[in-house]
Amino acid sequence: MEGAIAGGAARQFRTDVIWDGVDVMSVDMPPGTRDASLAVFQPIPVDGIVIVASPQEPASMIAGKAVKMAGMMNMPIPGIVENMSFTCPDNGKDYKIFGESHIEDAAAKYGLKSLAGCR
Questions:
Q1: E strands of 15-112, at which residues?
Q2: Half-sphere exposure (CA, 13 Å, Cβ side) for 56?
Q3: pLDDT band at 17; cut points 50, 70, 90
Q4: Would you place residue 109 in the very low, low, confident or very high pLDDT band (cuts 50, 70, 90)?
């Protein structure tokens, strides 16, 4: 049922909103909702998806599932972003809220470009 509701909302969002002048739309999908993700992405023309993961080990597994889903739907993946860790542009300090960064490992594991996270 969750997938059907999400798909219906995505279709309505695409057809009932005036999208003039919009170059990029970001859709944040929670992990573990494969049916909902498929239902949302099918009615919308997608140029690519960015995988978002956090430093915790289970996040890498979930990112792998997202990579697999993107492959099944022939969606390009520009890269992977690590959430919950960042380098402050003002002082250059790394803030690792949930532990050490594993973005480079995850990017290599899935053959993706690392787009953001602590370096």
A1: 50-53, 79-82, 85-87, 94-96
A2: 6
A3: confident
A4: confident
* Rounded mean pLDDT, 68-92: 85
Residue 91: predicted pLDDT: 92
Q: How many residues does the chain have?
A: 119
Residue 53 three-state SS: strand
Q: What is the pLDDT of residue 117?
A: 57
Per domain, the residue ranges of the chain are 2-116
Residue 81 DSSP label:
E
Rounded Cα distance, 38 and 43, in Å: 9
CATH 3.40.50.300 fits 2-116, yes or no: yes
Distance CA 104, CA 91 (A): 22
Per DSSP, the three-state class of 79 is strand
- Helix axis angle, 34-41 to 57-72, nearest 10°: 40
